[in-house]
Amino acid sequence: MAGEYEKLEVLGSGTFGTAWLANMKSSRKKCVLKEIKVSDMTKKGIDQAIIEVTVLARCRHENIIRYLGAFIDGGCLFIAMEYAESGN
């Protein structure tokens, strides 16, 4: 699934990772890839990241950024989300 996305630019970064503006190669639509380095995380941190993915996957509302998918690549968890061009 990692090959499905092309990173374009960093949108922001924080304690747990980096948010990238990316293109979905299949549709050429922009999205956000949240990159979280899990190789250095504690078990509790990994569990919290998995909970975040689970909650995002269940959300279905027009005012909530849509979850597109998640995958692990190179020791990082990537969460793909809809890109809000007008802001968050």
TrEMBL record:
EC assignment? 2.7.11.1
Molecular function terms, GO-annotated: ATP binding; protein serine/threonine kinase activity
Q: Does the keyword Nucleotide-binding apply?
A: yes
Give the record's keywords alphabetically: ATP-binding, Kinase, Nucleotide-binding, Serine/threonine-protein kinase, Transferase
**Superkingdom of origin organism:** Eukaryota
| Residues annotated as domain Protein kinase | 5-88
Which catalysed reactions does the entry list for this protein?
Answer: L-seryl-[protein] + ATP = O-phospho-L-seryl-[protein] + ADP + H(+); L-threonyl-[protein] + ATP = O-phospho-L-threonyl-[protein] + ADP + H(+)
The keyword Transferase is annotated on this UniProt entry: yes
InterPro entries found in the cross-reference section: Kinase-like_dom_sf (IPR011009), NEK_Ser/Thr_kinase_NIMA (IPR051131), Prot_kinase_dom (IPR000719), Protein_kinase_ATP_BS (IPR017441)
Question: Which Gene3D superfamilies does the protein's record reference?
Answer: Phosphorylase Kinase, domain 1 (3.30.200.20)
Q: Record-annotated residues binding ATP?
A: K34
Which PROSITE patterns does this chain map to? PROTEIN_KINASE_ATP, PROTEIN_KINASE_DOM
By sequence similarity, the record places it as follows: Belongs to the protein kinase superfamily. NEK Ser/Thr protein kinase family. NIMA subfamily.
Protein name as catalogued = non-specific serine/threonine protein kinase
